[in-house]
Write a structure and sequence with these properties.
The structure holds five protein chains of five kinds. Chain B is an all-alpha fold. Helix content of chain B is 77%, strand content 2%. Chain B has a two-stranded antiparallel ribbon. In chain C, strands 1-2 form a two-stranded antiparallel ribbon. The two termini of chain C are 31 Å apart. By secondary structure, chain C is mostly helical. Chain C has one domain. Helices cover 75% and strands 3% of the residues of chain C. The longest helix of chain C has 33 residues, at 151-183. Chain D has a domain at 1-88: Up-down Bundle (Four Helix Bundle (Hemerythrin (Met), subunit A)). Helices cover 74% and strands 0% of the residues of chain D. Chain D has helices spanning 5-31, 35-55, 59-84, 95-113, 125-128, 130-141, 147-155, 157-177. Chain E is 77% helix and 0% strand. Chain E is built from five helices and no strands. Chain E is elongated and about 60 Å long. The chains are: A mainly alpha, B mainly alpha, C mainly alpha, D mainly alpha, E mainly alpha. Chains A and D meet through α1, α2, α3 and α4 of A and α1, α2, α3, α4 and α6 of D.
Chain lengths: 116, 493, 485, 187, 138
């Protein structure tokens, strides 16, 4: 499992980079939000990986188990996921309104329109 | 019984009121309710300040779980000081929202507006008052999410784009902070700020801590719109409804600065921040750039809201510059400026709200003859503008005085000169507005006197008066700021 | 003393109250001026006998308070300003009515507020208070400068505000902060507060910052605002830009030299020497520029720039004679220059002429005005029997005491240049034949109110020649001159 | 209590496979320009992530991620894409700046993560300080065996109140944004 | 969607189970994975499914806009109401321990109620947002 640990962190780093890249390099607003989602989940992955204890199980107390993974990061990330979906839905609502006003969801296109 | 629960009520009151407000169907009732709530919130903030000044820092364990196991509210002088600013601005702005400017925002769903507004207030108060790093993130998101919506309510369709941009940048910033907090948790096992501070001392040469520091500082800088991460701010403030700009300009970025201060001094400690990470020069460079470049950019704006938005970026540069000196004077300057800038920007944007109410737009050309048409509004703009420039006997002078003193203390007199140069830029842009409003004759047929309704004008005047009052009687602001700076610096072992 | 500060403000308020009735409004203005003179004069005996009335209003930050303390220089300045305010008010009534200016209420209010600021400068007991009123004066005079409201006025207003606020914020405020950092307070103390507190290099930089920071002294290269401000109505040019504003500038420099640095310190370190040369150059260059100006007010403005540097010289030469000369020049030049401006205004009102070249033969139509102009010119040049001679005399002594022969030469040359650009005006007015057009014959003297004012100041020029003693005695304790004279 | 061998093999296999798939899925998004496909892929990504979290013992989180990430988010995104159009115009953004920012952020994160306490170490500070009390005492203090719920609702119940407030904020924000019909505002 | 009769029938059969499952997750969060948030999402997905299959217009008629808004606010109020109740019961904000003599029992009660609040708000918000989006196109 140790390889998984290091591996997980690498994955988180790569996902962070991909997510951030999508946010910044995409011109399409929906895709920006997709990137934002990936960026956020990558950070969540870090938390969850931190919370893992070797040989532990899910932190639901049961007879016969005495090693549990850390519940705190799970709690935090539960909250963070909710925050993420809230952000996404507001973002999508904005995108929809933007489409209605501009007729487009491409950033360059809108900038062009506003400059006219 | 109530008095011992004030720290919780400070945040919980607006938090509970937001859903209630949404349930109220009549806009007028919703307004009255929001006004009552925000003023009670302000009174609570005052009571907290009085308490903290008299008895020292205050803690409150949420759910009765003591730190570090539960979430703890902790109020020291700086907290109480920022609470006053946020709650005070909240009270003034809700009051002035009696009739939301026609055309500025849709009139139906006023209850939603007030609900969302109270949520921003809740979030900002929660960020300020909490002593728990993750709880800070949660309330940061409450305030941010609600602010995105408020910005998007602006009349112009560009408000939507501005809000979206704000959402993207704000979320990236918050996620950076989240990542930083995660790293801190990994090496310390705690989320409580004081506990973090203690435990970090044993691991502060760890690379994870250094990276966490970088993430949190960058994240906070995004939130407080530190140059060059400020791109979202001018758009958001320009296109948001004027009242919203007033509230956000006066509070949101200030709370961002507060978060930065909290982390730099309380969590990481001044020694780590300024010696190990040599944060000082970095902040100084960016703060100076912000002050100079944004002031310069502000000069060339034709939309007055955008002009003052850029000026906000510049003023935030001052605060960050104050922090960068890592000295008592510098910190005092930053804290005092948090207050004074809130007063002057609040007054300016509220005055613009008055103008929008009557004129529908705040393009510079629309403000022609404002001096005659809306003399009170215009007087407020002049007073707040003078404070922005830093003319003596205004609040802005006091903060600038401390800022330049802090620079001179360390023989950085080029920095001092740069600060003064940027105030010269402020002279130029403020005077552009004054000139147009004062000398050019009003557009045809619009010469009559037409002040905005009293509910809008009175808060504006109150803030303008505050700009002057706290420039003359500096004891309330400077006294608290100095004591708060003492407290923060004392936490350095 | 507090009353003296408040009087003009109360006056401004009363003017606002009486804004509907022009007569009442203007009599309020006159009344305020008279009360102010009485108040200022009532302080005179105290100060002359060595008293130093003190008044602290509030402390903004530690070592940073609004406080007033009256000493001889301030007394002199306040007296000159308040007396000339009365005269100017009378003059303004005639001028503004004769010229049918609009927004007269605003004009009188700003005028009164400017005066309040000027008195504040004169009375200020520390550098901070002085700075506050210095800025207040700039801002209060801005609406006066841009009174006409046209494009040219706006541009002029921009230059005015830009240079005055710019220099004061950038240099003066920096210097003040620095001084505060070094000395811990900003009080005006005879002998200065900086001795042994900082290395000479710092003192030198500070002094330069102060001198250039006081943009109102119009030391080159920060003189551009003064000609620009000439777009203002003539009473404004007369009182503010020959007396209140510019004299506030040089007064500030005198105060700083005497009470922040102390002339002994300046003399010992020699830090002010190069500024002496800047001042000398300003004197000469401004005089030369004045010769090229055809617009009468512009010519007078450059003349003012030149004359202001006399006072700066007085401060930077850093010896007793020079300081007394400089201080005297504040009064002497004020009276003479205001006479000239009054005449320029009278000419404008009566004949609508602004250019020197148009004024040939005007002496026949307006003999009285032109005679007064001649008197003013002679006083500025420094010829007996007019007051101007005394200040120049002491300044000359000062240059000798400091061993600056080059500067002495500059003074002499400048006086010759004065002759060259001022005297031709009355001479041509009297002796050149009027241009052929018939209009000239219709020109009469300006309104009575104007004439009264002109007469008073012209006589003052004369009186100051015969009775400079009270001024001299008032000033001598400042520099312990009793022995030397 | 070691799990049976067969299950372990599957877990070991999944442990390698899921992260690889995650990266591949995410990377594919960069080059995919049909937004419907992008959204579907994002849903798949969320499912994968949920799987990974099950492996990491975060069952509650995995459950939520599956319901929210793969479920609600996908539905909302599809609805939005339905309203805004499927096509994306590729390659218009500011790629260079993005690459620099991405590289710096990734570098910083890598720099930090490679210095964290060893993965899964039971004596890491993250597990020994606050968390140990939750695991040890929640049964007596909060009376429920699911420690995640205990912490979520009680020890850090205030965070959850914040979370509900966030959802509430999102809800009324969306409704407020949509309160206006198309074309209500002018330029 | 009228052609897909199978889908419609299946959905109708499925819905009770979805909501039942939601209830299970809601109440069972103390013992296994799940809780108010997950339950709320599942509950909302029932409506979403209904809306997708039968058309949003019909779904909206079943759940009125106004009712949704009341529910959105209600959930949040239940949660914070529990906190305030704790204040009146003599504890700190959200201190469930004061609800019963035994702190664990008090906590159990408090957690149950607040999870209910979470569930209500989440379900209502998710449904409302879905309706908002789908109500947009036509």
């Amino acid at each position: 499992m140790t390889t998984l640990g290091v591996f997980n962190y690498w994955v988180a780093v790569v996902l962070t980079m991909i997510g951030l890249y999508l946010v910044m390099a995409s011109d399409n607003l929906v895709k920006k939000l997709v990137g934002l989602n990936i960026f956020q989940t990558a950070v969540f992955l870090i938390y969850i990986t931190i919370g893992k204890v070797e040989g532990g199980t899910a932190p639901i107390l049961k007879e016969g188990f005495d090693v549990y993974s850390n519940p705190l990061p799970h709690v935090l990330i539960l909250t963070a996921i909710v925050v993420a979906v809230a952000t996404t839905s507001v973002g999508l609502a904005l995108v929809t309104r933007i489409k209605e006003e501009y007729g487009s969801v491409e950033e360059a296109e809108m900038r062009k329109q506003d400059e006219e | 019984m109530i008095s011992s629960h004030l720290p919780a009520l400070q945040v919980v009151l607006p938090l509970i009121s937001a859903p209630v407000c949404v349930l109220i169907r009549k806009g007028l009732v919703a307004w009255m309710f929001a006004v009552a709530v925000s003023w009670i919130t302000f009174v609570i903030a005052l009571a907290l300040l009085v308490h903290v000044v008299a008895n020292g820092p205050l803690s409150y364990a949420m759910g009765g779980w003591a730190a570090p196991y539960g979430i703890v509210y902790r109020i020291d002088l700086l907290t109480a000081f920022v609470l006053i600013i946020v709650a005070g601005m909240g009270a003034l702005v809700t009051t002035s929202a009696f009739r939301v400017a026609p055309g500025d925002m849709s009139r139906d769903h006023q209850n939603f507006f007030f609900g969302i507004f109270l949520l921003v207030l809740t979030g900002l108060l929660g960020i300020t008052v909490t002593g728990d790093a993750f709880n800070l993130y949660v309330f940061l998101e409450i305030s941010s999410l609600a602010s995105y919506a408020l910005v998007a309510l602006g009349r112009d369709r560009r408000a939507l784009m501005a809000a979206f941009q704000y959402l993207i940048m704000g979320t990236i910033g918050a996620t950076f902070i989240l990542a930083g907090i995660g790293l801190l948790y990994a090496v310390t096992g705690t989320l409580n700020m004081e506990d973090l501070a203690q435990r970090l001392q044993q691991v502060d040469d760890s690379r994870a801590v250094k990276a966490a520091f970088a993430f949190i500082v960058v994240g906070a800088s995004l939130k407080l719109a530190l140059f060059p991460l400020h791109a979202w701010l001018p758009n958001a403030y320009t296109h948001a409804p004027a009242l919203v700009s007033a509230f956000l300009a006066a509070t949101a970025t200030k709370v961002g600065v507060y978060v930065l201060v909290r982390f730099i001094y309380t969590v990481f400690g001044g020694v780590f921040s300024f010696e190990t990470m040599s944060l000082g020069p970095i902040l100084m460079v960016f703060g100076l750039c912000a002050a100079l470049v944004s002031s310069l950019v502000a000069i060339f704006q034709e939309n007055v809201k955008r002009m003052f938005a850029y000026s906000s970026v510049a003023q935030i540069g001052y605060m960050v510059l104050g922090l960068s000196f890592a000295s008592h004077t510098g910190l005092t300057a930053a804290i005092v400026h948090i207050f004074n800038h809130a007063a002057m920007k609040g007054a300016l944007f509220l005055a613009l709200a008055c103008a929008v109410y009557r004129l529908g737009s705040v393009e510079l050309s629309e403000l022609r003859g404002l001096g005659r048409r809306m003399p009170i509004t215009f007087a407020c703009i002049v007073i707040a503008g003078l404070s922005l420039i830093g003319v003596p006997l205004t609040g802005g002078f006091v903060s600038k005085w401390y800022l330049v003193s802090a620079a001179l203390e360390q023989d950085l007199w080029l920095v001092a000169a740069a600060v003064l140069v940027s105030s010269l830029f402020a002279v130029v842009y403020v005077w552009r507005v004054v000139e147009v409003a004062y000398f050019q004759s009003p557009p045809d047929g619009k010469g009559a006197r037409c002040e905005a309704p009293a509910s809008l004008v009175i808060p504006t005047v109150a803030l303008a008066v505050a700009c002057i009052y706290f420039g003359i009687d500096t004891e309330p602001t400077v006294g608290v700021a100095r004591a708060a700076a003492n407290e923060l610096l004392a936490s350095i072992p | 003393m507090g009353l003296a500060l408040i009087t003009p403000l109360v006056g401004a308020f009363l003017i606002w109250i009486c804004r509907v009735d022009a007569d009442l409004r203007e009599s309020m203005s006159v009344l305020a001026a008279i009360v102010l003179i009485l108040l200022v004069c009532s302080l005179f005996p105290t100060v002359a006998s060595g008293g130093r009335p003190h008044l602290q209003i509030l402390e903004i930050l530690p070592g940073l308070s609004l406080a007033f303390e009256l000493e001889p220089l301030g007394m002199l300045f306040a007296a000159v300003a308040s007396i000339l305010w009365l005269v100017t008010t009378i003059y303004a009534i005639g001028y503004m009515r004769g010229h049918a200016e609009k927004n007269q209420t605003r004009f009188y209010i700003c005028f009164a507020v400017s005066l309040a600021s000027t008195i504040g400068i004169a009375f200020s007991g520390n550098m901070f208070t002085l700075f506050v009123f210095y800025e207040a004066l700039t801002i209060a005079t801005y609406p006066l400068v841009t009174h006409a409201g046209g494009e040219a006025a706006k541009r002029a207003g921009r230059v005015y505000l830009g240079i005055l606020l710019g220099t004061s914020i950038l240099f003066q405020l920096l210097a003040i902060l620095w001084t505060w950092g070094i000395a811990g307070h900003l009080d005006f103390v005879p002998g200065g507060i900086l001795r042994d507190q900082a290395p000479p290099m710092v003192i030198a930089i500070l002094f330069a910052l102060y001198v250039f920071g006081v943009g109102k002294a119009a030391l080159m290269p920060f003189h551009r605002w003064l000609p620009a401000a000439m777009v203002a109505p003539t009473p404004v040019s007369a009182l503010l830009h020959a007396v209140a504003v510019v004299k506030a500038g040089v007064f500030t420099i005198l105060k700083i030299s005497l009470y922040i640095f102390g002339i002994d310190l300046l003399a010992d370190l020699g830090v002010s020497q190069w500024i002496t040369y800047v001042a000398a150059i300003t004197i000469l260059v401004a005089s030369l520029v004045a010769m090229t100006k055809d617009n009468l007010k512009a010519r007078l403005a450059y003349s003012t720039i030149s004359q202001l540097s006399y006072v700066v010289l007085g401060a930077t030469l850093a010896n007793s004679f020079a300081v007394v000369g400089g201080a005297l020049h504040v009064a002497m030049h004020a009276v003479a220059k205001i006479t000239l401006f009054f005449c320029a205004g009278a000419i404008l009102v009566a004949s609508h002429k602004t250019e020197v070249s148009q004024m040939q033969g005007l002496g026949r139509a307006m003999p009285f005005t032109m005679t007064a102009f001649l008197i003013g010119s002679l006083s500025v040049i420094g010829l007996p029997p007019f007051g101007g001679i005394w200040s120049k005399w002491y300044l000359a002594l000062g240059t000798l005491a400091a061993g600056e022969r080059l500067v002495l030469a500059a003074l002499v040359i400048s006086s010759l240049l004065n002759v060259a650009y001022l005297l031709p005006i009355p001479i041509r007015a009297f002796f050149a034949p009027p241009p052929g057009d018939s209009k000239t014959t219709e020109i009469r003297e300006a309104p009575l109110a104007c004439m009264i004012a002109i007469t008073v100041t012209a006589f003052a020029c004369l009186a100051l020649f015969f009775y400079p003693q009270p001024l001299y005695q008032l000033l001598s304790p400042v520099v312990n001159l009793d022995g030397a004279a | 209590m070691d799990p049976p061998k067969g299950k372990r093999l599957i877990v070991d296999f999944a442990v390698i496979l899921i992260p690889v798939l995650l990266v591949l899925t995410a990377a594919a998004l960069i080059w995919l320009h049909n937004l419907v496909a992008v959204v579907m892929l994002l849903g798949f990504y969320s499912l994968l992530m949920a799987g990974l979290w099950v492996i990491l013992d975060a069952v509650d989180v995995a459950f939520t991620e599956a319901a929210v990430g793969a479920g609600i988010t996908t539905v909302l995104m599809l609805a939005a894409v339905g309203l805004t159009g499927q096509g994306e115009r590729p390659g218009q953004g500011n790629v260079l700046v993005a690459l620099v920012v991405v590289a710096v952020t990734g570098g910083a994160l890598f720099y930090a993560l490679s210095d964290l306490p060893p993965f899964g170490a039971a004596d890491a500070p993250a597990h020994t300080h606050v968390a140990s009390r939750y695991l040890g005492q929640s049964m007596t203090e909060a009376g429920i065996p699911n420690v995640v719920t205990a912490v979520l609702a009680s020890y850090r119940g205030y965070d959850t109140l914040g979370e509900v407030t966030v959802i509430f904020a999102a809800g009324i924000s969306v409704l407020a944004l949509f309160s206006r019909r198309h074309g209500d505002r002018k330029n | 969607m009228h052609e897909f009769a199978v889908l419609r029938v299946a959905t109708k059969q499925l819905l009770p189970f979805i909501w039942l499952f939601a209830l299970y997750v809601q109440t069972h969060g103390d013992y296994g994975p799940g809780g108010g948030f997950q339950a709320g999402v599942i509950f909302a997905s029932g409506f979403i499914l209904y809306g997708l299959v039968y058309g949003v217009g019909k779904a909206r008629r079943i759940v009125q806009y106004r009712v949704l808004i009341i529910l959105v606010a209600l959930g949040a109020l239940i949660f914070s109401g529990v906190g305030v109740w704790a204040l009146f019961a003599g504890g700190n904000f959200l201190e469930y321990a004061v609800f019963a003599d035994d702190p664990a029992a008090g906590n159990h009660l408090g957690i149950f109620i607040i999870e209910l609040g979470v569930g209500i708000t989440v379900a209502a918000v998710m449904t409302a947002i879905f309706f908002a989006f789908t109500g947009r196109s036509h």
